[in-house]
């Protein structure tokens, strides 16, 4: 029976230098040759991993932590943050000098022309593009996700006020902001239902806190050694570090491909 495999990007498909290991390229090629579906499940917006999709020939993916879902190049699910919440969040953030970056499926924009927290946070991801400056970018657009930039502990006041939004920290200076309940795990289920697959045919690989629900839910789940303890604690298998061919080793161990 053919399988579908969901891969996180940063720390899973990409090593610590933001490159795709040659062993990973081999594994993806062999999986596809065997007729399996290779998919991506990431917190990134679609335009921030288009080159990865092109290089690995992937057209099924979960983006923005579950808010944008594509199967065989067709959008099957999209959920945005209500504009009223974006406005209220922005107003509160501005009073605290906390920048906001608005993200839709095509681009991202910052409400501040420059801020050291935005530079440091996004800089750590080594994206090949920076957010444009447009404080009104959210108007008339479907904002799938926002980035709130603030120090650890400062998010408590936001979480208390915006109970219909979820805040997930991914950097000491930044959090993902999403509609409440939006997760990779729920969108894995959406794709599973769309394709009519059984639980035993679903595989998931990840390393970060935004992979926790997915790795907990999926029957065949793999966490990277470089991952957070929370996600490693629920995965069925913990593989080697991403920089030590961990992804390739896991796929071989699972019997889905042969060794190089």
From TrEMBL:
A Pfam family: Hydrolase_3
SUPFAM superfamilies named among the record's database cross-references: HAD-like
UniProt-listed NCBIfam families: Cof-subfamily, HAD-SF-IIB
InterPro entries associated with the record: Cof, HAD-like_sf, HAD-SF_hydro_IIB, HAD_sf
Protein name (database record): Bifunctional phosphatase/peptidyl-prolyl cis-trans isomerase
Keywords attached to this entry: Isomerase
Gene Ontology terms for molecular function: isomerase activity; magnesium ion binding; phosphatase activity
Coiled-coil spans in chain: none
GO cellular component: cytosol
Key word Iron present: no
UniProt keyword Secreted present: no
């Amino acid at each position: 029976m053919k399988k579908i495999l969901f891969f996180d990007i940063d720390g899973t498909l990409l090593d610590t230098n933001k490159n795709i290991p040659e062993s990973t390229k081999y594994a993806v090629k062999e999986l596809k040759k065997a007729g399996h579906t290779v998919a991506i499940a990431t917190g990134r917006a679609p335009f921030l991993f288009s080159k990865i999709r092109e290089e690995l020939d992937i057209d099924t993916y979960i983006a923005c932590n579950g808010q944008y879902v594509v199967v065989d190049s067709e959008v099957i699910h999209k959920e945005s943050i209500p504009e009223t919440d974006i406005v209220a969040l922005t107003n509160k953030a501005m009073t605290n000098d906390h920048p906001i970056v608005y993200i839709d499926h095509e681009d991202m924009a910052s409400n501040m022309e420059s801020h050291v927290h935005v530079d440091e946070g996004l800089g750590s991801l080594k994206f090949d593009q920076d957010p444009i400056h447009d404080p009104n970018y959210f108007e008339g657009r479907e904002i799938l996700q926002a980035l709130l930039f603030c120090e650890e502990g400062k998010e408590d006041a936001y979480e208390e006020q915006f109970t219909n939004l979820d805040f997930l920290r991914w950097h000491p200076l930044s959090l993902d902001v999403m509609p409440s309940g939006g997760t990779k795990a729920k969108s894995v289920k959406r794709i599973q239902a769309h394709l009519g697959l059984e639980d035993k045919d679903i595989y998931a690989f990840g390393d970060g806190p935004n992979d926790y629900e997915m790795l907990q839910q999926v029957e065949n789940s793999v966490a990277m050694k470089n991952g957070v303890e929370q996600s490693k604690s629920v995965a069925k298998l913990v593989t080697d570090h991403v920089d030590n061919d961990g992804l390739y080793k896991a796929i071989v161990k699972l019997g889905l491909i042969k060794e190089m």
